[in-house]
Amino acid sequence: MSNELIIDSLQRRMKALHSLYDQALSTMTIEHVNHFEREGVLPIAFSLFHITNMIDSSFMLITGQMPVWNDEWNARVMPAIADHGKHKTVDEMIGQRIGNYEAFQEYLQIVFNRVHEWLAQLQPEELTRVVIHAPISSTSCQHVQRARCWRSGNHRAGRRGVLDLPTRTSPHGRNRVCSRPCWPRGNDFLIRN
Questions:
Q1: CA–CA separation, 76 vs 31, rounded Å?
Q2: Which of 57, 76, 120, 136 has the fewest beta carbons under 10 Å from its own?
Q3: What's the average model confidence in pLDDT over 103-110?
Q4: Residues 119, 7: contact at Cβ < 8 Å?
């Protein structure tokens, strides 16, 4: 697939995702979003805040621009837990609620619109640019690996072209190289300089 087709596909997918969120937000009230179903079930507030904040945070990895989310947005949106929850358990995030639904919707629109604007000006040669140079943390390594594989349209091509794949000890005690198209764990994947 050519880089132009990849960019076109990214633009269409992002617009589709954004429209789904717009539809969901327009059909729910704050009571729906913050509704507590039962123990072990995260409220809709978690999912809404999580994906929006993760897109906002991840945008920095590909553009170098600081996230929109800051102390001022935190004070406006008033999430019960000021964390996207990526590294938290269900028990830790079950209390997530959005305090100001209108402010949250404004935050979501800014985050999604910023991605749309970036995709609209994206040049094909940018798809092969290394955006973060080694050494990086294992968490950042995972984000970069996913982004590069997604952009390449092929998990294996993304690995071969960008990342070294060292041997790791498996949970079963055998040393192996992960050859299946799976997401990285820890420092499995190292970005070349």
A1: 18
A2: 120
A3: 97
A4: yes
Place of tokens 């994906």: 51
CA distance 154 to 74: 37
Q: Determine the 3-state secondary structure of 182 from DSSP.
A: coil
The CA-to-CA distance between both ends of the chain, in Å, stands at: 26
- Average pLDDT over the chain, rounded to an integer: 77
Mean pLDDT of 152-174: 41
DSSP 8-state symbol, 38:
S
Whether 43 contacts 35, CB under 8 Å: yes
**What is the DSSP annotation of 54-111?**
HHHHHHHHHH-PPPS--HHHHHHH-BSS-S--TTS-HHHHTT--BS-HHHHHHHHHHH
Q: What pTM was computed for the model?
A: 0.67
